[in-house]
Amino acid sequence: MTDFRMSHGHPSPEDAIHLATRRADGLEIWQTDKTDMLDPPEWPRGPRGAVFYRGIAAANVPTVMTNGIDVPPKAAFFLTDSRAYAWEHPMGSAPRALLLYDRQHLRRSFVREPNPRPADWTVDKTLYPSEYIDPHTDTRVHTRFGDRHYFPGLAAESLYGYWSPADPNDALLGVIVGGPIELVTDLLAPFDLDWHTRQTS
Fold this sequence. Notes:
The protein is of the alpha+beta class. It is built from 5 helices and 12 strands. The strands form 3 sheets. Strands 3-5-11-2-1-12 form a 6-stranded mixed sheet. It has a 3-stranded antiparallel sheet with strand order 4-10-6. Strands 7-9-8 form a 3-stranded antiparallel sheet, covered by helices on one side.
């Protein structure tokens, strides 16, 4: 598997810079001064299809540093292969952060029930405990998203819905935090990191 943590060369100073590395596993944390939802950081840039992105509020970065994701363990979450689209979310949240995940460690958050359903067809409800009827296709969908979640329909979940069956930290390739350097270092202060010299040129 390609190690995206060390394969990108050098970023430009106006974009994300390598700020720190987590001692336990080499996870790289990057900082960018960018916070505008329509101006995503250009760094790092993994091969298309190999990296998924998730946008979060920067305030949730400490949770990610502990759990590998900003939702409860084994919960489903939305990801996209578009860095720009992920940076827009959650809308209205600034400063913001971008999480990078290796898609090889992830599974889809749902299973579609065939229609008509064969007599021997089954779904593992321990993996997909909830279900809903997609209003556009009349398809029954078995999902890891809980009953309290709003389901925009199969079209959205089939594009963005994933979960991590193992430790999400194993799937997490990098964290890019947007905002002033002082804010970012304060968010990361509780964690065991090797800090790097901030690049200025």
